[in-house]
Design goal:
Elements (H helix, E strand, L loop, with lengths): L1 E7 L4 H9 L2 E7 L6 E6 H10 L6 E6 L2 E12 L6 E8 L6 E10 L3 H4 L10 E6 L8 E4 L21 E2 L7
Parallel strand pairs: 1-4, 2-6, 7-9
Antiparallel strand pairs: 1-3, 2-3, 4-5, 5-6, 7-8, 8-10
């Protein structure tokens, strides 16, 4: 489980600039039917978090004022020149409420076609699914060991648990 400590902040622009100079990153936490909460996190703690999570579908526990808020990172804004994170959005998840997330594929096995001299063209790297927050996977495994030259895998071919629903065109390769 991933976690980060957040602190409440005020809205003033001058204060936001000062926070950034102090090594803090302003952000927000929002959720269905909730008032948006203004926060900041320590830049170094955020860097560690962002380098350790596997995908944008990883659930992060945001600790704020004694509360533990299971959340998804919805947006990370970076300075276009330095790459430094300048703002972060967290989406607070609620038990029983389904969410839509992008989940990366993890290829398993070696394709027969590659063994025969072919080249694997890995076009689609992730898929959008809908599920409950507790069921969000880090990745979806795709076994490619039986793929021959000219073969492909469509989204409709994936054998997924019923708790996950693909929200994209099932004909995609």
């Amino acid at each position: 489980m991933y976690e980060i400590t957040a602190y409440p902040r005020q809205e003033r622009k001058k204060r936001v600039r000062k926070l950034r100079k102090e090594g803090k990153v302003p952000g927000v936490i929002y959720g269905h039917g909730e008032k948006t909460r203004l926060i900041y996190v320590e830049e170094e703690e955020l860097k560690k978090l962002l380098s350790s999570i596997h995908s944008e579908s990883s659930v992060v526990t945001v600790k704020l004022n004694g509360e533990e808020l299971p959340s998804l990172i919805k947006e990370v804004q970076r300075d276009i020149f330095t790459g430094r994170v300048i703002h972060i959005d967290f989406h607070h998840l609620h038990r029983g409420e389904k969410v839509t997330v992008m989940v990366p594929f993890k290829l398993v096995g070696e394709a027969k076609g590659v063994k025969e001299g072919g080249i694997l063209d890995f076009v689609k790297r992730d898929v959008e699914i809908e599920c409950l927050p507790k069921d969000i996977p880090e990745f979806i495994e795709v076994d490619i060991s039986n793929l021959g030259i000219g073969d492909s895998v469509h989204l409709r071919d994936l054998k997924l648990p019923e708790k996950w629903r693909i929200t994209e065109d099932l004909e995609e390769v």
